[in-house]
Amino acid sequence: MHKPILIIGACGQIGTELTIELRNKYGGDNVIASDIREGNDSLMQSGPFELLDATNYAAIEDVVMHYDIDEIYLMAAMLSATAEKFPMRAWNLNMNSLFNVLNLAKESKINKIFWPSSIAVFGPNTPKEGTPQSTIMEPSTVYGISKQSGERWCEYYFKKYGVDVRSVRYPGLISWKTMPGGGTTDYAVEIYHEALKNGQYESFLKKGTKLPMMYMDDAIRATINLMESPAEQIKVRSSYNLASMSFAPEDISASIQKHIPDFKMSYAPDFRQQIADSWPGSIDDTEAREHWGWEPRFDLDQTTQEMLKNLGN
Length: 313
Ligand code: AKB
Prior knowledge:
The chain is an alpha/beta fold. The protein has 2 domains: about 5-170 and about 215-240, 3-Layer(aba) Sandwich (Rossmann fold), CATH 3.40.50.720; about 175-210 and about 245-310, UDP-galactose 4-epimerase, domain 1 (Alpha-Beta Complex), CATH 3.90.25.10. It has helices at about 15-25, 40-45, 55-65, 80-85, 85-105, 140-160, 185-200, 215-230, 250-255, 270-275, 285-290, 300-310, and strands spanning about 5-10, 30-35, 50, 70-75, 110-115, 115-120, 165, 170, 170-175, 200-205, 210-215, 240, 245, 265.
């Protein structure tokens, strides 16, 4: 039997699907969901739930002791667009929550951590195409700065204290079960909802803004595979590059038009354009493939098919 797992930030876009998948795998009672707010019915009804503030060390410690938690997935974070509006709140949430779980592991109260990083760790001086695992990283966003700092701390806690912390740099994630909130890549989810509802979408990123993206099923599979891999296979303890597809707004529009021929796309770039312009267009994830066997399954057209089928019901 798998030892108990705690998901912090279980009600967000990734947390919701991760919690459900882990509960399917390891049993509902073995996966404790937590967040500062309640989630949707499938999350709330499939296993235990705790209201929890990710910045409150004592509260997390209480839950860890109560359920005899072995692993934590820390999914709570303020994303790129919102973080530009609230820099200090973003820094406090993104960094303090990470220190809380790193310190619990340092004190041997838990054994393993998953912490998500992002393509936002890269900046305008990073090579734009086929961005390698190790390269220039000068993030120009609040969110990116917090993720890059987090990566440095993860590697430090691994090397200095032997903390088993594992991480991937998620690209933009596309899913139909839960809406994303406050990210720059959110347009790639909103567009499917609007295409089905109104037959049109106004993109806040302009034509030609190519970004790395991934269908949620691939992201969840990568996350669980990484956590289940033997420790000696995990050679990168900052965070792994992870890739599947890259596309610009006009590409996703063309993919939707294969199913909804009258779909219309217009463009009205806002402050998120500058954030997107600072990020890579495509990612080289050779290390993740070689070290722990990562392989994506969904391309853009398969993603479109899944999104329209599931949202259309
Ligand atoms: C965002 O847009 O902020 C996130 C991310 C790429 O980490 N989806």
